Amino acid sequence: FRCFSSALTPELKNTVDKVVKSNKVVLFMKGTKDFPQCGFSNTVVQILNSLNVPFETINILENEMLRMGLKEYSNWPTFPQLYIEGEFFGGCDITVEAYKNGELQELLEKAMCT
Amino acid sequence: MGVTKEQVESSLTSKLKPSHLEVIDTSGGCGASFAIEIVSEQFQGKRLLERHRIVNAALEEEMKQIHALSIKKVLTPEQWKQQQEAENSKPDA
């Protein structure tokens, strides 16, 4: 229970729900896939590029409400945030780890086939 | 006032009772930035995402001021022991 006001309004939650469910792979990041503005965001973009999967990126630097709201939505304090099939997958460290051990490829292949 | 390596270490130590903890200050002068390796019984039976969430939660206060946090290793004592043994058995690595 939070007694302070939440950045994640019902409207914002609805919007995020829609975005993560209407795209199989979504990356909320600092910058864009063509111009990442942080090394951690860039790392995840490079991994997704190398795996050859289509993905959407959303620049959280352009929307402070979204940036604050997403931290609550995912219960994750930092960016980038990767979502696969509507589910929060992790940040940069988790994505790198899953890439190294093959779990990420497996999950993405499954996502692409559904 | 920024967050110091010692503050990060003391929060993690008191909340997660790690059997091994390494906090590396990776800030290149631009502010608080850390890399962490942590081994604790509390990660037993938890997936990687849940383990990271436990670490993030333990540093909730500090996170407000930390610019970058990289969790390099979150292991159970058992996994840690296995990794150490694997590393020792290949001296060239």
Descriptive tags:
heterodimer, A: 114 residues, alpha+beta, 4-stranded mixed beta sheet, 5 helices, 4 strands, globular, B: 93 residues, GMP Synthetase, Chain A, domain 3, 3-stranded mixed beta sheet
Protein described:
Chain B: One of its GO terms (biological process) is response to stress. The complex is a heterodimer of chains A (114) and B (93). Chain A is an alpha+beta fold. In chain A, 49% of the residues lie in helices and 15% in strands. Chain A is built from five helices and four strands. Chain A has helices at 10-22, 39-50, 64-74, 92-100, 103-113, and strands at 25-29, 56-59, 81-84, 87-90. In chain A, strand 3 and strand 4 (87-90) form a beta hairpin. Chain B is an alpha+beta fold. Chain B has one domain (5-88): BolA-like (GMP Synthetase, Chain A, domain 3, 2-Layer Sandwich), CATH 3.30.300. Helix content of chain B is 42%, strand content 23%. In chain B, strands 1-2-3 form a three-stranded mixed β-sheet. In chain B, a hairpin with a 7-residue loop joins strand 1 and strand 2 (33-39). Chain B is globular, with a radius of gyration of 14 Å. The model of chain B has no long low-confidence stretch (mean pLDDT 90). Chains A and B meet through strand 4 and helix 4 of A and helix 2 and strand 3 of B.
Unreliable spans of chain B are none
Q: What helical percentage do the residues of chain A reach?
A: 40-55%
What is the overall pLDDT average of chain B?
90
Q: Write the H/E string of chain B, N to C.
A: HEEHHEH
Compute the separation of the termini of chain A in Å: 36 Å
Beta-strand content bin of chain B: 15-25%
Sequence of strands across the biggest β-sheet of chain A: 2-1-3-4
GO molecular function (chain B): 2 iron, 2 sulfur cluster binding
Family (chain B): Belongs to the BolA/IbaG family.
Protein name (chain B): Protein BOLA2-like
Describe the secondary structure blueprint for this structure.
The complex is a heterodimer of chains A (114) and B (93).
Chain A (H helix, E strand, L loop, with lengths): L9 H13 L2 E5 L9 H12 L5 E4 L4 H11 L6 E4 L2 E4 L1 H9 L2 H11 L1
Helix pairs in contact in A: 2-4
Chain B lengths: L4 H12 L3 E6 L7 E7 L8 H11 L1 H4 L4 E8 L1 H12 L5
Parallel strand pairs in B: 2-3
Antiparallel strand pairs in B: 1-2
